[in-house]
Amino acid sequence: MAQQMRKYVHDGHEWTMTQALQTTFPRQQGGDTLLVGGAIGIGMTAEAAVRGGADFLLALNAGRYRVMGAPSVSAMLPIGNSNSFTDNFARREILDRVSVPVFFGASCFDPAKSPEALVEQASEAGYHGMANFPSAIHFDGRFRQLLEEAGIGFEREAQMLALARQAGLMTFGYAKTRTEISRLVDAGASMICLNFGWNAGGVLSVAQSFTISEAADRARRIFASIRARAPETLCFFEGGPIISPDDMFRVCAEARADGYVGGSTLDRVPLEHSVTERTSAFKAFEFLKQTDSAQSRALSRVARITGVVGQSEFVMAVLDRVSRLAPTGLPVLISGEAGLGRGALARGLHALAERQGPLLSLRAPEVGEDAEEILFGSGPTRRAMLARLGATVVIEGADTLPPHVQLRLAEWLEKGELLPTGLRATESARLILIKQPTGGANGPALEPSLAQRLEPGRIDITPLRDRPEDIPAIARHILSLLDAGQAQHRQISAAGYRMLLAQAWPGNTPALRSVIARAAVNTKGAVIGSTALAAAIRDLSPGAVEVDAPQQMTERDWLLDGLRRNRFRRGDTAAFLGVSRKTLYNKMRREGLLE
């Protein structure tokens, strides 16, 4: 066997593998340093892991299968020559391209490839160490027994690691049971990893039979036994229910582990979420593309005059209804939350109707009992609002009017009674009432007779949170107003739009306008990114907007949020999330969201 040892360069010095182990991975003092290894299957992820601070890498066939879209358990199937498969991608994409030690994941299942030959191959290729993967530890029962009896089970893996240590390579041993751990200690493994099974989490998650607490307790007891026999051996853990940094920290703290190895938790799970979110962000521009083609010329004029912006079905329906109501002279009831442009819509109705009289406004909560006198007049010296020829009278907060005033308005609308001036209601003024969408149990509400009379001209304004597809168009309109008269016209990035789409916006358009304005002021250049928008959202007063970071959502939460925002219409939800209908259906089925 070739005895040449791979040199590892660290701080300008060359070390043998044994020296590198002692220098690069020193025994932890008080647990103040934590080592993190990455079980990687592609060069791009390997380099990213090193930039993130990974201390070493494991080139494993499971990592390669994951980036091919297969679950990690595929590594255990006889679907190819594992050693050649792993060595090929590791040499091309990882080995000699990163600044940390790289371990070769060697399979001992091939009876035609001796442990000696595997060690020689790894040493000549220039790997810094070896790991026993894929490993017999993932089999049990009669099949595992047959592997051991045939001489191609875990005992053979331990022999390979012992030979690798003698050849000057670092050795990383995977084990699950105390018996396997003991055998790795006997083989002189430099690093021992307690494996808790295939990872939970993500789309290809595996059901777990134990909790984080149970995993921490098991690791604590096993690591204590390792250190009692081999104090210099480094103790790691991997897999099972540990899917987040918080999970890792908890197990490390309780078990006094030297480090953690991430496989699916470093590549598959983050990749699934980040690619899904980023694709969805770019898909948000589909809404912008639709904006310019959704409105007819006639509706565009109505939108321009009323200030209604968007391309959702709701917006199209409102614009169409306004265009039909404007010339009729019917009384109108606009119902919706504050911040939805109710006042602008009322003013737009007056302009579209081309009425000859003035636009008169009354804020009911401010005038209280004086509302009746202001609206109907009390004598020849006071001219009533409703007596103004051709006027449009807008009453904001109409649900707070005293009941007797509401009843008189209902009677006036119903019978067209003569006013003191001698004019009939239909000749004098048009009435537009604005109110909140609903009155609480003890809150204000319109008198039934008045509400019934207003029903033919009722317009309900849907809150922004229920029509997120309008947000890009509104955001673009806000930017156009901010940039009016300027040479540079700014835009929002794809990730920025995704962030805006993910918010609930309880403050509706004013909250959105404030966020965009703040972000625009704090942005240098023409593109407003997600970072500036996130800072602007945090700067808003409490309750103005709810910050909702999608990257923190579980797959189930992400799906439910999309379904809720699109009123559980699957086609619209798929478009909103940036996935196909089939993909949405499969995700819903996997998360138990199908009836």
Write the layout of secondary structure elements.
Elements lengths: L7 E3 L2 E3 L1 H8 L10 E6 L2 H9 L4 E4 L1 H7 L14 H12 L8 E5 L8 H11 L3 E4 L8 H9 L4 H13 L3 E6 L2 H9 L4 E5 L16 H18 L4 E5 L6 H11 L3 E4 L5 H16 L1 H10 L2 H10 L6 H13 L6 E4 L6 H12 L5 E5 H4 L3 H6 L14 E6 L6 H13 L9 H4 E7 L12 H7 L3 E3 L10 H12 L8 E2 L1 H8 L6 H14 L5 E2 L1 H10 L15 H11 L4 H8 L3 H10 L5
Parallel strand pairs: 3-4, 3-10, 4-5, 5-6, 6-7, 7-8, 8-9, 9-10, 11-14, 11-15, 12-13, 13-14, 16-17
Antiparallel strand pairs: 1-2
Helix pairs in contact: 5-7, 7-8, 9-10, 11-22, 13-14, 18-20, 21-23, 22-24, 23-24, 25-26, 26-27
Structure description:
The chain is of the alpha/beta class and 595 residues long. The protein contains 27 helices and 17 strands. The strands form four sheets. It has an eight-stranded parallel beta barrel, surrounded by eight helices. Strand 3, helix 2 and strand 4 form a beta-alpha-beta unit. The radius of gyration is 35 Å and the shape is elongated. Mean pLDDT is 81; it is low at 1-19, 27-31, 202-207, 418-426 and 543-552.
